[in-house]
Amino acid sequence: MTTARAFAATSATDPLSATTIQRRSVGPNDVRIDIAYSGICHSDINTVRGAWGPINYPLVPGHEIVGTVAEIGSDVTLHKVGDRVGVGCTVNSCRECANCLAGQQNYCLNGATYTYGSVDRDGSTTQGGYATEIVVVEDFVVRVPENIPFDAAAPLLCAGVTTYAPLAHWNAGPGKKVAIVGMGGLGHLAVKIAHAMGAEVTVLSQTLSKKDDGIRLGADHYYATSDESTFANLAGTFDLILNTISAPVDMWSYLSLLAFDGTMVNLGAPAEPMPVSVFALMGNRRSLTATAIGSIAETQEMLDFCAEHGIASEIELINASEVNTAYDRVLKSDVRYRFVIDAATI
Ligand code: ZN
Ligand code: ZN
Predict the structure, then answer these.
(1) Which numbered ligand comes closest to the C-alpha of 105?
(2) Residues in CB range of 250: below 8 A, 6 or more apart
(3) CATH match of 160-290 with 3.40.50.720
(4) How many Å lie between the centroid of ligand 1 and the Cα of residue 284?
(5) Where in the chain is the domain with CATH 3.90.180.10?
(6) CA dihedral 211, 217, 219, 223 (to 10 degrees)
(7) Ligand 1 mean position, distance from CA 209 (Å)
(8) Most C-beta atoms within 10 A of its C-beta, which of 182, 193, 208, 272?
(9) Cβ(223)–Cβ(198) under 8 Å?
(10) pLDDT 10s per residue in the chain (346 long)?
């Protein structure tokens, strides 16, 4: 085992604080990664504060991890020491169920092993990326292309693939009208990626406060949802709507924006149910669905796509000691557009 420095939550209410954790010894198929940067995802905050259910403390959050391979196991073939690599939301899965066999580890029917707060193969609780190193089985580690700035690459590992996977699955591209609801960590990357795919991109944000950014990042149109006329003017417009908001929204209003056979995909995970009228779907044979992150193959495909199109996250780089302030600011949507922790400061 090796000892890593880390920042951990010790309760649902106390600030995160510096600590040390043990990482397992490198097994035959494992890769040990010296972490360089770790993004702060809204899910980290929901998890450590117990919003999605009780957890065991202390817990080290973080599932937007980039770093350099420091050690490999005897049977590792996918990575070598010195490689630039990343780890996202999952670090293992059952490898036996239909979804795993289809390469959809994020939908593992036996429950994927998440990067933090999950039960690991050895029965311990997984600890995430707010740390100086991590040990992960090689096929859950992806390559980070050289031309993506390393710090700005970190958020791609969750926010990037969470938006890329549905955009790719529902064929965002030339001739398609795509709406991105919410201009935050997920939303700003969805704008960049959908634009690079060739779609006509519209941002639907509560206000116009981030309109200049939205247009700069690739949006063709930008509307405020606080303006009632937005919904009337855009009725029946979109082939695809990505809802990145993690609070409940009025489903009828958003579904009415879909064109014939259009699809609304929910990426946020509100704790409360959202009522849906079947009539909102019947009117234009609309579909309502949700996706959860992406597979390992989709994560690699997304990183390669971002490298090819010069896409990375807009970030605010912080020291580990600033993580609690950053959490408060994320909850106020006061970040442009993702906080990234410099692991050298942990
Ligand atoms: Zn995340
Ligand atoms: Zn499985």
Answers:
(1) 2
(2) none
(3) yes
(4) 33
(5) 2-156+314-345
(6) -20
(7) 24
(8) 193
(9) no
(10) 999 999 999 999 999 999 999 999 999 999 999 999 999 999 999 999 988 888 999 999 999 999 999 999 999 999 999 999 999 999 999 999 999 999 999 999 999 999 999 998 778 899 999 999 999 999 999 999 999 999 999 999 999 999 999 999 999 999 999 999 999 999 999 999 999 999 999 999 999 999 999 999 999 999 999 998 999 999 999 999 999 998 899 999 999 999 999 999 999 888 788 999 999 999 899 999 999 999 999 999 999 999 999 999 999 999 999 999 999 999 998 999 999 999 999 9
How far away, in angstroms, is 57 Cα from ligand 2 center?
26
Residue 156's nearest CA partner among 305, 298, 313, 315 is: 313
Report the separation in Å between the CA atom of 101 and the middle of ligand 2, taken as the mean of its atom positions: 7
Q: Cα(246) to centroid of ligand 1, in Å? A: 12
The alpha carbon of 112 and the centre of ligand 2 are apart by a number of angstroms equal to 7
CA–CA gap between residue 56 and residue 48 (Å, rounded): 9
The count of residues in the chain is 346
Question: Does domain 2-156+314-345 correspond to CATH entry 1.10.760.10?
Answer: no
Question: Separation of 40 CA from ligand 1 center, angstroms?
Answer: 8
Task: Identify the nearest ligand to the CA of 42 by its number.
Answer: 1
Report the alpha-carbon distance of residue 147 to residue 156 in Å, rounded. 14
Nearest ligand to the CA of 111 is 2
Q: Where in the chain is the domain with CATH 3.40.50.720?
A: 160-290
Helix residue ranges per DSSP H, the chain? 42-48, 98-101, 150-153, 159-169, 185-197, 211-217, 229-233, 251-255, 278-282, 296-309, 323-331
User: For residue 182, what are its two tokens?
Assistant: 């919410």
